[in-house]
What we know:
By secondary structure, this protein is mainly alpha-helical. Helices cover 64% and strands 0% of the residues. The protein is built from eleven helices and no strands. The protein has helices spanning 48-62, 66-93, 95-102, 112-125, 130-155, 171-184, 190-217, 234-247, 253-277, 289-306, 309-338. It is a multi-pass membrane protein.
Amino acid sequence: MRPDHPVRFAAPxxxxxxxxxxxxxxxxxxxxxxxxxxLAHFPVSLFGMTMGLMGYALALRSAGAxxxxxxxxxxxxxxxxLLATLFxxxxxxxxxxxxxxxxxxxxxxxxxxxxxxxxxxxRLVLEYAPSLANxxxxxxxxAQFGLTLVIISAWISARPFGPESLSPxxxxxxxxxxxxxxxxxxxxxxxASWYFFAAGLTFxxxxxxxxxxxxxxxxxxxGKLRPTLVxxxxxxxxxxxxxxxxxxxxxxxxxxxxxNVAYLFAALVLFQLPGLLRLPFSISFWALSFPLAALTxxxxxxxxxxxxxxxxSLGHAGLALLSLTxxxxxxxxxxxxxxxxxxxxx
Length: 346
């Protein structure tokens, strides 16, 4: 985003998505600014929008707001279709730009957002079109499986990654594995869902240690990556939801631990909120949406199983914040698009 055209939130935004960032380019993998055409600068991180919108639709459904959920789901499908079309066009017409993005140490972590969007789409259509949901789930799970192995292999290869390359965005591949059981278990893919849950939980624990180390002992995150701090909320919230599907409707000790870890990270993020609100708006703010949606859905789920009025209230509060967040994100994203400030060289 150009520094002479700052766009800020019209109102304070709540602290919470999976989100996406139009991250700063650095190093030899960065895309040259002189690359021709805006399509060359279409960032894969924009798929964080579809993650956030689909997560919002699921949160509305968990609150019983079915009509609103259908409307948001329709919008999410339209956005996903548009972004997928542009991404394919970029792959065909700007393959070098796509290769540069794949080799970028930060943007690499955003590629699984495409698979995650497909998996969330499978969950949303499950009740209406089980056969379609099964196809979407298999495609999303296969993509998530391959991307997880390829990205982690890139992380541990001979290619060096400095501490400045590490950010909470690296959780996205791990979160994707934890999303797989949401539709996988109802569709009957039990053992495959256990595999993805185990993989996601393992790498969430490992990456939490690495990310906390980076945040404490190294330079602060760049401005455009600071909203990705909210991604810390998503893995434990998604692990809670998947664990309940895999083990049964009654929350056990591990389920309670996962949910409360998500609340812990949410509380930590709230302390960072004043600094986040001072930042100019950028696409990276979509990172607020999916984690808050996951935590809101988890709160409603726990309340439904235990009858907890407190968690029901947390769910309604989270849904109100999530609704405000998505409205502000859509408004400011539209402003950037109308000003031609999204697909720009950095």
